[in-house]
Amino acid sequence: MSDHQYILNKEVFHRDPTGYTIPNDGVTKVGRIIDENQLRVARYELESFVCEGSYYNGLKHILESFLDNLDHPVQPAVWVSGFFGSGKSHLVRVLEFLWSDLAFPDGATARDLAKLPPEIKALLIQLNTEGRRNGGIWSAAGTLSAGVGDDPRTAILQIVLRAADLPEKIDVARIHLWLAEYGILEKMRQRLIDAERPRDMGRPFVSNVFAEALIELHPDFSKRTPEEARDDLRRQFGTDIVMTNDLMASMLNDIFAMKSTENGRMPLVLLVLDEVQQYLTIGEGAEQLLAFQGVIEDVCSRFKSRLLIVATGQEALQANTLLQRLQGRFSLRVTLDSKDVDTVLRQTILRKKESMKAPLEETINAVTGEISRHLDGSKLAYHAQDESVLALDYPLLPTRKRFWEKVLHSVDEGGMSTQLRNQLRITFDGTK
Question: I need a surface site. Which of 48, 127, 202, 271 has the fewest CB within 10 A?
Answer without folding.
Answer: 202
